[in-house]
């Protein structure tokens, strides 16, 4: 399929609520769903998704459109890539060629190179004789065939050019492989060689399951020990792979995260794989670094509750602290997971020993503040005033960062108990540390989302009245006549004149008593006025939100009031105009004009 046919087919097959729901937590609101807008900063949701009309619209910043516009905006994609992504979701085959070759983007090429490499590695792991050591690794780790399959584990051939040769035989250029991170430039000369050689391959996939890069682990020798050389080799930063945006396992974990209302963040890929294999699937890894604001933006699509599990070494601890700061600052609820002493050194170990231990550790994860308190109590010498003072000072600093005062005082009490210090004294110190700056609680929106949105110009009350009235007429056809007549003699705001005159034409030319709204929109669409059809849909959405709860008589009453208000606004505008014209006429000494204006003003004063 190609052209508009494809677009329509994709729209028919996909529900906008599901597409948007992959990114945002939507809550039902009447016939629509709502969320906080991903395109501007807000605390109360004004972003609506309407399944019936298949549109989204933010009444805060004015962003709106269909599934294609949403995905483009959200993912920072060009239309062809958004089309491809949604076609894949909808199971619609795109016709290759036709209008496509030219638009085949660089990004797409690199994703395809990675996907093909992942397939090659996976196939080799399954049945190539060269992959024997990798299969032993899989066996030692007791990874099931299902796990190998769903994580697409693989083996990279121990060769300088086998991967490149294979991919180049499939039409990729040397330079594309380099830009995909699959090959490395040779130190001498101009050649390239394969980056991943003789390693266990873990494809890293984005939220949609596209392979964006790899982590490659060295394979243990026959003695089970890792040979020399780096244990892990990773894809470098490329056009499609950015470590600070990636979350290992997110494509498989996302629906579980949403269902559980909770994401568990671990450090290692094997932690994720073992946990998923054991049936705990709301788990992802953050590639061993502190959480970034981009990763938090990704989480926010599915949940605002995180459980962090970091290795108990000092690097893990400082990563954890930075991650906590970021997440708290971005408004997440954060708990810390501690493995019980007999559970092994990392989640992978723990799951292997007993998955119930792992589940229990997740369920019992403690508020991050009590994790701080516990760490401090383990390290503080309570017989030393100096040591106590330092520890209390550090903890107070963490408490000062909390956005919520009720929480703060809870932890002050805990702190007072722990250090046997009067609460009042701690409160005094907290006060001196200062209130958290109001900027806290906001992360920078991701690059994709931060495409600057100019807020619409502030609306005049007249605009609002007319928007409401048209919306009322569109949603409740029994009000059409009242609205059409009520607006007939007025001067409508520029942006709404055309919509009104089309509606009037539609209204007078059709005699259907049925539901007018959808008919009007298709009436517009059939006249090549799809932009106006969308404007109508947004007004309907707005009217439904504003008046949806009212009984029929309430709707009629509201319509009457709005028409009354519209008319008196018209009069006062006209009066202002006349007053302005009057002073101009006086300046010009135009007596004729002055008389005329006086007459009209006199008639207006009722
Ligand atoms: Zn918005």
From TrEMBL:
It is an enzyme of class 2 (transferase). One of its GO terms (cellular component) is cytoplasm. Monomer. Interacts with DnaB. It catalyses: ssDNA + n NTP = ssDNA/pppN(pN)n-1 hybrid + (n-1) diphosphate. Its cofactor is Zn(2+). Belongs to the DnaG primase family. RNA polymerase that catalyzes the synthesis of short RNA molecules used as primers for DNA polymerase during DNA replication. SMART domains: TOPRIM, ZnF_CHCC. InterPro entries: DNA_primase_core_N_sf (IPR037068), DNA_primase_DnaB-bd (IPR019475), DNA_primase_DnaG (IPR006295), DNA_primase_Znf_CHC2 (IPR036977), DnaG_bac (IPR030846), DNAG_N (IPR013264), DnaG_primase (IPR050219), TOPRIM_DnaG_bac (IPR034151). One of its GO terms (molecular function) is DNA-directed RNA polymerase activity. Its EC number is 2.7.7.101. Contains an N-terminal zinc-binding domain, a central core domain that contains the primase activity, and a C-terminal DnaB-binding domain. Keywords: DNA replication, DNA-binding, DNA-directed RNA polymerase, Magnesium, Metal-binding, Nucleotidyltransferase, Primosome, Transcription, Transferase, Zinc, Zinc-finger. GO terms for biological process: DNA replication, synthesis of primer. Binds 1 zinc ion per monomer. A zinc finger (CHC2-type) spans 37-61. The keyword Transcription applies. It comes from Candidatus Uhrbacteria bacterium CG_4_10_14_0_8_um_filter_58_22. This is DNA primase. Residues 261-342 form the Toprim domain. NCBIfam families: dnaG. Residues 435-456 are annotated as: Disordered.
